[in-house]
TrEMBL record:
Coiled coil: none annotated. This is Deoxyguanosine kinase. It holds the Pfam family dNK. It comes from Paenibacillus sediminis. Its EC number is 2.7.1.113. Transmembrane segments: none annotated. InterPro entries: DCK/DGK, Deoxyribonucleoside_kinase, DNK_dom, P-loop_NTPase. Keywords: Kinase, Transferase. The keyword Secreted does not apply. The keyword ATP-binding does not apply. Residues 7-206 form the Deoxynucleoside kinase domain.
């Protein structure tokens, strides 16, 4: 049976994934699966010392997302029901390839593939790109204390890693539709027409 619409919103830190996923969920009456941030015991420590805490943090994200997407698969995908999530499982690898080194990175890669290769994958990705200034403004606006001193080089690197990752998904999975949104110019929060444009594109794809 053909998989129903599984839409993932992706982009670097603060791009507006949760915001857009929630807005689309309301507009299209499709349930949304959101990443849990507030209960993460390692994020605060990670931003204070990336090398010390990266393995724990990446494993924590991986296990949480594995469980969440396993449930999403049973609850929605297997029943052909549409669903939106504010992340793609591949983001684990985007971050981990950057934050882990040596043996830890090798072990992580193996565990990542073991856990995720047979998980349901989104067939539509909304990729929000945004430049460093825009992301920094949004991170500041949101005001999570542990993100306020984020290394700008880390964020800039993630912007580039995301571009590469999306190109790699496009090459590997030609059946996945990737809609790239220029988050620096398109403002789906402040400009209702911009949001309407995105929503109508998605409606067209899933009808
Ligand atoms: N297009 C936009 N214009 C103005 N503000 C925005 C826009 N999109 C998001 N924001 C604001 O920027 C902040 C970050 O947005 P959001 O939490 O949706 O990002 P995210 O990509 O889900 O972040 P994270 O990567 O940390 O999960 C929030 O305060 C949100 O209200
Ligand atoms: N290192 C690392 N790996 C991940 O898989 C990952 N996913 C999200 N994040 C960070 C970004 C936001 O600060 C905050 C909320 O998204 O958590 C991550 N950090």
């Amino acid at each position: 049976m053909k998989q129903g619409p599984f839409i993932a919103v992706e982009g670097p830190i603060g791009a507006g994934k949760t915001t857009l996923a929630t807005m689309l969920s309301n507009e299209l009456h499709i349930p949304v699966v959101k990443e849990i941030v507030e209960e993460n015991p390692f994020l605060d420590k990670f931003y204070q010392n990336i090398d010390e805490w990266s393995f724990q943090l990446e494993m924590f994200f991986l296990c949480n997302r594995y469980k969440q997407l396993e449930d999403t698969g049973l609850q929605y995908i297997a029943k052909n029901k549409p669903v939106i999530s504010d992340y793609h499982i591949y983001k684990n690898l985007i971050f981990a390839e950057r934050t882990l080194k040596g043996v830890q990175r090798d072990k992580y890669r193996q565990i990542y593939h073991l856990l995720t290769d047979d998980l349901p994958k989104p067939n539509i990705i909304l990729y929000i790109r945004a430049d460093l200034d825009t992301l920094l403004k949004r991170i500041k606006k949101r005001g999570r204390s542990f993100e306020q001193n984020m290394d700008t080089a880390y964020l800039q690197q993630l912007i580039e890693d995301y571009d590469e990752a999306m190109s790699s998904i496009a090459a590997r999975e030609p059946s996945t539709t990737i809609i790239t949104i220029d988050g620096t110019k398109i403002d789906f929060v402040e400009n209702p027409e911009h949001f309407a444009q995105i929503a109508s594109q998605v409606k067209e794809l899933i009808r």
